[in-house]
Each structure stands twice: as C-alpha cells, then as structure tokens.
Specification:
Layout (H helix, E strand, L loop, with lengths): L1 E8 L2 E6 L4 E6 L12 E2 L7 E4 L3 E2 L2 E2 H7 L2 H18 L7 H16 L9 H7 L1 H18 L5 H13 L5 H22 L8 H19 L8 H7 L1 H18 L6 H18 L6
Antiparallel strand pairs: 1-2, 1-4, 2-3, 3-5, 6-7
Amino acid sequence: MGKIIRILNHNAIIIHDLKNKRVLLLLGKGIGFGKHINETVDRLPLDGQIYELKQKTSKGDTKDILRNIDPMYLEISSDIIALAEKEFGQIDRNILLPMADHIAFAIVRIKNDKNIANPFANDIRLLYPSEYRIAKEGCRIIYDRTGYQIDDDEAGYITLHIHSALGERVDEGMLVAVIVRESIAQVETECGIRIDDNSLSYNRLLTHMKYLMARIREKEILSLDMGEYTKSHFPYSYDVAEHIIERIARTINQDVPKVEIGYLAMHIERVRQSEMGDKGGT
C-alpha cells in the first residue's frame, strides 16, 4: 500500500501511498505502535480513520500544522468528523486539520485565560442546528480528552467548521451569521422593536435569511415576485428590506436579485406585527 514517512504517536502515522501518489494520515488505536519510518504498510486498517493530506489548507501549509500540533487534536477532530458523518453521510474530510488546529488554539487560549468571544454564537446555533448539536457533542469529547471545557462561543466556531464540510467555507458561514445579525439589528433599529431570539417570527426570519444567502451563492432566482404587493401593502417593511438587500450586495460585492426584497419584506412585516402587536400596522 505504501511506506511510513512519519510517526506522530502510537495512534497516528503518515504514509506515502505509492500506487495512487497520495500522502495519507492514518488514525487508529495503536496504529503507530512499534512501527518505523520507511516500513511498508500493506493494507489500510479497517477500524482506523484515513485522511488524504493536501499540501495546503485554509490554515496554511499542512507540514507546518502537523509540525506544531499535538496529534491528540487530530484524533479529537477525527472523532468529531465521525459524528458528523453519522449525521450527514459523506462530508468533506479536509476539515480535519483546520478544525484540529482551531481546537488546539482554543485550549491554549483557555489555559491562558484569553477566551475569544463569539457575538454570533446564538445566530450560528439557530442557523445550523444539526451542525451545532454535533459541535456540542464534540465539546464533550474535547473535555473527556483534555479536561478543558469548551464554551458555547467556541462551540459556534466548531459548528462553522462542521458546516464547511457540507459545502460552505468557514468564512462564508460566518459571513451569513454576521449579515443575519446585522440585518436583525437593522430591523430592530428601524422598526423600534426588540426581537425575541426565541420567537417563532425570529426563527422564520433567520431561516429566510439563511436560504436567501444560499440562493445568492447558487445564483438561484425566485420565480414569483412579491415586490409590488409588499411595497403597496407594507411600505415600511419594504423600505427596511430594500436597505438590507443593498447592504448585503455591498458586503459580498455581488448583485442581489430585486425579487428578494419582496419576500424579505413579508418576513420583516411578520416580525413587526408579532413584536409590536397593535402598534405594528403599516
């Protein structure tokens, strides 16, 4: 199958797959025990985790990451990926190193009392509930392996790594959360209301914003235009929606179809009516 080019610890080795010209990371209990560099590996372990290593990752050069990271975090990251695969099926396993690197630095920050706040943690939880649930299970794995408790802010960041394995980069997932949070804040400011994060209307608006961003990314255009109807019946909400769409377009440096304004206006109006009661008329 290949030759061992590096032994990280008893549970992690790197091999060169000569047949397919790949560098593979093999993780499994005792897989590196008693092994030596240049030793031939005839077959891959059935009970182990196998990852193809690319030269570059979103966190930098693969060699640099492996040189500076405790293999324990690779094992933790692999365990979290296994949970994600059980939930979602096949995912992009290239998140292994970036997520392991993030978890390693999170533990360093905790040790040094320098936790980084995540102001979008709640929005990430609501936007990506399945990924967040896996991240929270991952936090328990981290605690069991390291003895350090990962808070909800860090769980939000791990959620984005898991979500990125489903086809959206971490920075794109964060961008969605930021735009949603800023848009909700704009609705609150312009409508003079305080939106309950746990309300049904908030969750509907959040879900709409999530799929709005997905449509923009996939260049999908809604077939039914509600613009004239909402502009006529809910002019205030339409105006707020128009401002939000303009902000999104500036932020992502991409045109957003005008048809999105009408649908967003309907959700904003629903939130206004829900939060303002009799004061929320048009």
